[in-house]
Amino acid sequence: MVFLQREASCAICALHSDDAELAAHEVWRDDLWLLRHHPQPAPLTGWCLLDARRHCAGPLDFAPEEAREWGVVVQRASLLVKQVTGCERVYAIAFGEGARHLHLHLIPRSGDDPRTTAWKIADLYRHVEAGKVAAASADCVNDWLQRARAMAPRLLNG
Ligand SMILES: [Zn+2]
To answer: Which of 10, 18, 55, 133 is the most buried (most CB within 10 A)?
Structure first.
């Protein structure tokens, strides 16, 4: 069993203690991982984050149990994003600079949206963050979340 220690200065640890934020955006969790939709402003409907529940910077710092389960949970969470969003591919990107706590971005890549092509996705992210491009609508995100939460137990448990 991995002990879920928290780091006082960490934004992801704080978010994991924020019941209102989790009620708004959490999709699924188990003992090790928490899958959530990107908070507002969300660059795209279906843009998710797969967090380590433990304060852990990334694969370099994995406990053995996290290392064993990582591949399975990343595959299943990516499949959930693909099926609920209807995109062709799902990018998986983790820098861990904004917070030194693993939060893997799972990003829907759609062939009919050129803004989602490779590194153009970073431009989209910055433009939405700066308010230059409209974020995904709250209605679309909420609809996506309802469908994702309904599908998550079948795809992600066990
Ligand atoms: Zn943390």
So the answer is: 55
For ion ligand 1, residues whose CB falls within 5 Å: 7, 10, 12-13, 55, 101
**Cα 32 to ligand 1 centroid, rounded to whole Å:** 13
In a domain, 55, yes or no: yes
Report the chain's terminal Cα–Cα distance, integer Å.
16
24 Cα: distance to centroid of ligand 1 (angstroms): 20
Number of domains in the chain: 1
pLDDT tens for 47-56 read 999 999 999 9
Full-model pTM: 0.95
Per-residue burial over 67-78, b = 16 or more CB atoms within 10 Å of its CB, e = otherwise: eebbeebbebbb
23 in a structural domain: no
- How far, in Å, from the CA of 6 to the mean position of ligand 1? 6
**Tokens describing residue 34:** 């928490």
Ligand 1 centroid to 99 CA: how many Å?
7
Determine the average pLDDT of the residues in 134-158: 96
Dist. CA 58 → ligand 1 center (Å): 11
In a domain, 110, yes or no: yes
Residue 118 lies in domain: 36-156
